[in-house]
Amino acid sequence: MTDLVETPETKNNEDQETHDILTEAVATVQPEGVNIFDSTSVHDISVVSTQQTLLRDDGDEVLEQVEELLAQPEPGDDQRETRLQRCKELLLLYYGEVNKARNHTEAIFAHHALRIGKLLNSMKPLVKATGPIWQEWAATNLPYMSSSTREDYMLLARREDAHKYLYLGKDRLMELIRATKSSDEDPIGKFIDKHGIVFDEEKAGGLQEFKLKVDTALNMERLAKYRFEAPRDQVEILTENNIKLNKNIIDHLGFAKQAGGTFEDALKTLVQNKGKIKTAPVDDEETVLDFNQLGASLIEAIEQLVASEEEDLKARVNEDTLNKLIEKIERLKAALEA
Description:
Blueprint: H1 13-29, H2 42-51, H3 57-71, H4 80-130, H5 134-141, H6 147-158, H7 170-179, H8 187-194, H9 206-225, H10 232-240, H11 247-258, H12 263-272, H13 284-307, H14 313-316, H15 319-337
């Protein structure tokens, strides 16, 4: 068995013991030549997806009714209205049960993500004790997990204030973690209060409504970060259409205003187009606009990388790409000064 924990010679018995523990742990879960990050076969997925519904008892009863209805022959002319009404009633029930299952699944996987993060955080000091740099060791020994995914899991585990919100799901919770400061007491709770979000745990459909309000608040915060104010109802419409107000969209709104329009009109157009904006320039003027938008996004990305708590910048930033970018910017600057 190849030594999967590559370390320099240990300096004392304690380091050697830690090294042996790591070696045994990695060897146990990662046999040589076996890709452990996903051993699922297509057959496994097919069997599970047809045999497991993830619905509770009430949901399975509704599912049986849906399958019975779908198996019935086409109704005659005098039965179509009755069939349509029955379909409408079942769809409402079935859709609700499927949403419940999705919410339960998101919460379950958030708990799994938390445990993975705790496991990673417990491994980091063990690795450091044996000598290697954590990021380099993880890249070699945990190749099935990207550095950004690994950092997300570890951050989730460190933010103990966020653990009571696991029912929101991992991705949404990570958005909230990034939008709040961990130095505050219950920063996520303060964020929720700031935006006047009320959550009724007993209300049917309350969780979906709560998630929409949280996502809308996150979009409002992104706008506020760039000193834009927008009607909450319009932002909520975008949010309902799964539109995340990223830097590119916000830049588009800002440039539309600079071009002589208004932010409100640009936002209304964005709402009407369900968040879609032109991405391909069609003339020189749009090429300049596109460059400015991309440049602003790049500046923001660089600022976030420099200010982040992540230690593995080298793993996330390709130096060849960075050098080419610097070269092109220098050529552009020289052309402007010519």
